[in-house]
Design brief:
This protein has about 325 residues and is α/β, with parallel strands linked by helices. Helix 3 crosses helix 4 and helix 6 packs across helix 7. The radius of gyration is 18 Å and the shape is globular. The structure holds coenzyme A.
Length: about 325
């Protein structure tokens, strides 16, 4: 099969309006702005909205930037761990809001979901489809107890989306993985808030990032020195720093949006990608690595020769 290439023709993201600062949280739990910033890198998070509404808003921005309409989209892949309903998936509702007439499915791989979606989108392109809409959207507020200082400081809502199509870029290497031994370190029973063993999640996350990044580099035949820019899942700045120490990446080559958003699970990488593109920090031809990791445990990495979203239609 020939490689059709992989181009981000448009990227977009949205955050709901309600800002909850660390000082706001300190009114309902025994914590402080200083502690949260120092231990996580988070300054505030956004609450409100629905998963389908945020997903559709982010998708619209991505489609505008890509200069495409609803008829141009061949598949909708929606990564979310906070669907609007137990049944059905949220993707059909998003497709309805956007006026799409195509396949529409949810991907539940927690914080790794959007990067899983990119690899799946590449598969659709290899099968001849022309444009795939890959969305990550979350309303983590639904399963977060904002009076529990172990979890309530970390999570927020948001959405990011990309339209991908064949083009001069390509996915040079990738890695997808899961280890179900760790289900019960970060999970939520039906109708309940999430529970987490924070220390164990921290440890396993650092290991997963390292393992997945190295597996994707091996597949691409590259080393960390070949990587120009990296966007990790935005969970905790200290997780990123610990993993970077082992991998040899620097914070200067790293995209971060954690301070403004908190952990938005499947939405975090496209939210950060949108910011990085606004800042003009990625250019055509750059070698860009995206690394997702999260509950499951799951992990997902792509290494791309970057092409796309020059913000032309913005
Ligand atoms: N505010 C103030 N103090 C807090 C606190 C908070 N929100 N949470 C814990 N503490 C206290 C503890 O009670 C403890 O006090 P003690 O030393 O007097 O007993 C101290 O701070 C250290 O607690 P600890 O649990 O060791 O903190 P930590 O450094 O492990 O940080 C997390 C806790 C949750 C921030 C951290 O474990 C973490 O980020 N884990 C990964 C979670 C994650 O990213 N999940 C999503 C993955 S996709």
């Amino acid at each position: 099969m020939t490689q059709p290439g992989f181009r981000f023709s448009g990227v977009g993201s949205v955050l709901p309006d309600k800002v909850v600062t660390n000082d706001d949280l300190a009114k309902t739990m025994d914590t402080s702005d200083e502690w949260i910033r120092e231990r996580t890198g988070i300054g505030e998070r956004r609450l409100g909205g629905t998963t389908s509404g945020l997903a559709a808003d982010a998708a619209r921005l991505a489609m505008e930037r890509a200069n495409v309409g609803p008829d141009d989209i061949d598949q909708l892949l929606l990564a979310t761990t906070t669907p609007d309903y137990m049944l059905p998936g949220t993707a059909p509702a998003v497709a309805e809001i956007l006026g799409l007439d195509c396949g529409a499915i949810d991907i539940q791989a927690a914080c790794s979901g959007w990067v899983y979606g990119l690899v799946m989108a590449n598969g659709f392109l290899l099968q001849g489809e022309k444009r795939i809409l890959v969305v990550g959207a979350e309303t983590l507020e639904r399963m977060t107890d904002y009076t529990d200082r172990g979890t309530g400081i970390l999570f927020g809502n948001g959405a990011g989306a990309a339209v991908v199509e064949p083009g001069p870029g390509e996915i040079l290497g990738w890695d997808l993985g899961a280890d179900g031994k760790y289900v019960k370190i970060l999970w939520a029973e039906h109708g309940e808030n999430m529970s987490m063993d924070g220390k164990e999640v921290f440890r396993q996350a650092v290991t997963a990032i390292q393992r997945s990044a190295n597996a994707a580099l091996d597949r691409a035949g590259l080393t960390t020195d070949d990587i120009d820019f990296v966007i990790p899942h935005q969970a905790n700045i200290r997780i990123v720093e610990a993993a970077w120490k082992r991998l040899g990446f620097t914070m200067e080559q790293t995209g971060m949006r954690l301070e403004e958003t908190g952990n938005t699970s499947a939405a975090s990488i496209p939210l950060t990608l949108d910011k990085v593109l606004d800042e003009g920090r990625i250019s055509d031809g750059d070698t860009v690595m995206l690394i997702g990791f999260g509950a499951g445990m799951t992990w997902a990495t792509t290494i791309m020769r970057w092409s796309g979203d020059d913000r032309a239609a913005a």
